[in-house]
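Batch job 17 of 40 flagged for manual review because the log was empty.
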Amino acid sequence: MRITYNLKLEQTQKLIMTPELQQAINLLQLSSLELQDFLQEELLNNPVLEIEETGAEAEDADKKEGEPPEAASDRDSIDWDQYFRDQDIEPLPRFNQSNAEETPSFDSYLSRDPSLQEYLLMQLGLCRLSVTQKRIGEFLIGNIDHNGYLNGSVAEFASLLGVEERDVTEVLSVIHKFDPSGVGARDLRECLLLQLAERTTVHPLAEVIIRRHLPDVAENRFKKIASELGVEPAEVQAAVDFIRILDPKPGRLVGGASDVRYIVPDVVVEKVADDYVVLVNELSVPRLTINAYYRSILGREGESVTSSFIKSKLDSALWLLRSIEQRRLTLYRVTETIVRMQRGFLDGGIKLLKPMTLRHVAEELGVHESTVSRATANKFVQTPRGIYPLKFFFASGVEDQSGEAISSASVKSHLRELIDSENVYRPLSDQKLAELLRLRGIVVSRRTVAKYREEMAIPPSSKRKRH
């Protein structure tokens, strides 16, 4: 076959995503805090953009800066209203800044809590130990994880430090007396025994059960423990109840406040009379506008390199403002649709939560499912029922006896209610739970009950039984 070169002209249609369209899509899936960081970066990169000033700040800025008459006339010669008008986007209700607290709370000024290692090192510094012992103590504390357990063996530590094993054991015994009780243990058994040693009143069977029967306690085999110890199962139950008040992870008591993450809702739903109002929360997002100085330059320069540069930056800023407003509109419409479809949940609680998919909302709004998915990604809504991720409202479900759909969250709520009210000495089996749910009009199989129970971290009936 002969290979030749030729020119051919053909016309094709392709879908190309411009950088502006990609930016609009990325903005849609950003949360409020992520959008704030993005806008701060844009303010640094685009000199045409500036933060809109309101109230007294705007008045002071006008008095300080002023504006030359010729600049004002040049600016007036441009039809900015036509240039900035976007008729496809309607104004939406905003979350008023005056509704929020103007004065930060006291928690805003608190420093972080000390970590577990810092807390233990502070206690080590108060002990009367030699320089070598403190060096060993610092090394041991550095090998304690966030749960309070020591990772490694005494022999290994002694070899790394070049000291005797008894020296490491002596220092470790000192750390075992530190607060929180049980810190520095090498396993669960040692952790619980250390906490028992700090208590004045201890159940007589607690120590022997911890030393010899912890696996049986985990499997709820109380009759086996009672048979080996020669006591009644009720006594074993009382001892296990005492053991369960001990903390298996004492390290969590210190430094936990530093892991707190605060949720800033992207949308607020408030009940007004008998209706629910959706407000897009933009307290943390700066309001952007176009700098008036660059507008005046654009009017004076005419066709020049400076004018071309400003026009390019102005086009970029305008697209950004339109994308932000489009994001607000999409988020508002999606949330409004969710509120309308989940009105039963807002009125009556989680038992009335309906199963809903992205397709249901997309068909209601006339958009693609990916748009709804991006609009609800990483975003939270504050409702009279609490703060929930927007993804929470998209849940699968089952049908009741009348053929109406019931969400899995609603089924779990009924399941939790039945288990909380059961006889602890004769807990309900999965089959019995399925029968009781059927009496409430919820038709599910035993396997479905077991699946939902495991998702809620509820043990089976054999492990819930008390003696």
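Reviewer: the log was empty due to a logging misconfiguration, but the result itself is present. The first helix runs from residue 19 to 28. Unflagging and moving on to job 18.
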